[in-house]
Every structure is written in C-alpha cells, then in structure tokens.
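Protein in question quoted for reference:
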Amino acid sequence: MEVVAYASGLILRVADVDRFVSGWNDFGKQQFLDLGATSARISQSVFAGEDAGNIGLVSEWNSIDTAMEHPAAVRSNPEVAEMMKSAGVETLRRSLLVIQATRGSLEGKYGSLLVGTGDPASPQQTEENAEAFWGQMQEGANGIQWHQGVAAGAMTGAYLTMTLSDSLDQLMAASQKMFAQPEIQQLMASQNFQLTGRNLFKVLG
C-alpha cells in the first residue's frame, strides 16, 4: 500500500507570541513528533490580509487516523494546556491537506503560501508541474511543497503551494520571472489555474 503524506494546518490567534514560541521550542514541537508527526513548524503571517499576525502551525503525517487523534492528545497534556492558556492561544481553524510533491529543503527564514484553483491533475502531471515550477524557482527558494485541500473549509479542493526561502526579495524576484515565462503561462492556462491568494510569513520555529 502506497503511503500518502498529509499536512495538518492549524491557524491560531496568540496574545503572547514570545511565550508561545518559547513553549514550542522547549517541548511543544517535540510533543508533535512524539505523537507521530514526521515534521512540525510554526510561522507568523505578516502580509496576509485578515490573517496578518496569526500563527500557523503545519505538521506532516503519514496517517489521517494519527492526525485525527493528535488534537485530543495535545489538550490532555497539562504542560501544553498551561502554556496555551498563559500565552492566550485561540484556535481559529484546522485543515487537512494532501501533500502532492516536494522539492528542495523546507527550511528558511521566510515563506510564501500561494492559494489557487484549477483542474484535477494526475500524479504524473503533478510531478511534471513540480519539475517545471522548481526549475524556475530554485534560484530564489530553498524548497517548495505542493498541497491540495482535503478537509479545509472554503479551501477544500484548492491547491496550495508553500515556498521557503532566506530572502523574500529573492523569492519574489524568482516568482515574477517564473510567471512571465511563456511555457509556465501555457501550463497554467492548460489546467485553468487561477491564483486566489498569497500569504507571506516569517518562520518562528
């Protein structure tokens, strides 16, 4: 049976960000890994419309069942519960995404999250798309991961592209250059891809 990887996206409003980041680095991230996540990171939206200032927590899982049990396990941990209370953490929404492709290293100081709509793509087409986009973006990015919303409210079915970089100037320059390429424009048009949103964020841990 082929292993399908998923990403859980949690959006939080946090009153005391410094307290939250400290708790995350001290024990919060490790708890995610101990409960079955294969990776976990937090970031803060900076330029994101109504989401500006919110905290994003993205964790990767090899099983939806494991991801489903995780929130209850977190809430039952007294140390985590106390940290969330003292930091003034409020959950705004939680989404499940399927990871379609990854290129490069998902490390960096900053990131961009693109949201768009388009026609369904086969696994082969998704891989071809990833190669085409990564070929254009790697000069300004450390890594890219492509997702599709599985259970994500209004974004269910939407496509999300997360790009990590150590410089948003370099990332945006590469992005503008890529979108100006005729072959990329043709690829996007052939799949009816429409960009609907972008979130620029800072990685916190």
About this structure: DSSP finds six helices and eight strands in the chain. The helical segments are 17-34, 64-75, 78-87, 123-137, 168-179, 182-190. The mean pLDDT is 95.
